[in-house]
Each structure stands twice: as C-alpha cells, then as structure tokens.
Amino acid sequence: MNIDQSHTQTFGENYESKIDTALAELGKLKQEIATTNSLSLIQKKQAEIPVEMLEAELKKPQPDKGLIDEAVEALKKGLEGVEKLAGPVMKVATILAKVWI
C-alpha cells in the first residue's frame, strides 16, 4: 500500500511571519477604521466585524481559509469607496493571499 502524504500542509517560519504581518496590518486597519471621518459610526461597527473575525481566525492553529476569504471580501465591500482605507485593506488581502500559496 502506498500512502501519498504530499498534500499534507506544513506551516513553517515563513507562514508564522506572514500571519504576524497580517495581524499587525489588521491592527493598523482597525485603528484607521476607528479614526476615519469617512465612515459613520454604524459603518465603522460593520467594518470591525470582519476585522475581528480575521484576527480571531488567524490566531487559531488551523485557520479556516474559506472564512478568511469571506471576511476579506466583506471588508472590501464594506469599505468600498473609502479611499483612505482601500490601501490598508488591499495590503491585508495581499498578505493573506500569499499565506496559502
């Protein structure tokens, strides 16, 4: 019997580094959401939900990639048109995309 274990994903230092970077960028984004004048209080609260979901998921030993993708999309849609926050959102999305390559 030949068991193929080539699909077992192992996470190394590079993975940890990317997760740490993503968490740091999420922290910055959270701060920018809180301080921007481009969003109403309700919009800020709505934007915080996917950020908090991302933070919680990334801290897990085995993050759910599907949930992370959904949260990133929710962030993009929720902050669409807020130019000041577009850069930080894309930075987080880019980092997270590289985690699972």
Care to describe what's here?
The chain has 101 residues and is mostly helical. It has one domain (13-99). Helices cover 71% and strands 0% of the residues. The chain is built from four helices and no strands. Helix 1 packs antiparallel against helix 2 and helix 2 (41-58) packs antiparallel against helix 3 (65-78). It is globular. The protein starts with 12 loop residues before the first helix and ends with a helix. Residues 1-10 have low confidence and may be disordered.
Give the topology.
Blueprint: H1 13-35, H2 41-58, H3 65-78, H4 83-99
Report the structural category. mainly alpha
Helix and strand string, N-terminal first? HHHH
Terminal residue distance: 30 Å
Mean pLDDT score, rounded?
Answer: 85
- Helix count, DSSP H or I runs of 4 or more residues: 4
Uncertain residue ranges = 1-10
Rg on CA atoms, Å: 15 Å
Strand content: under 5%
Please describe the biggest sheet, giving its number of strands, its sense, and whether it closes into a barrel. Answer: none
Structural domains: how many: 1
Helical content stands at over 70%
Number of strands: 0
The shape, in one word, is globular
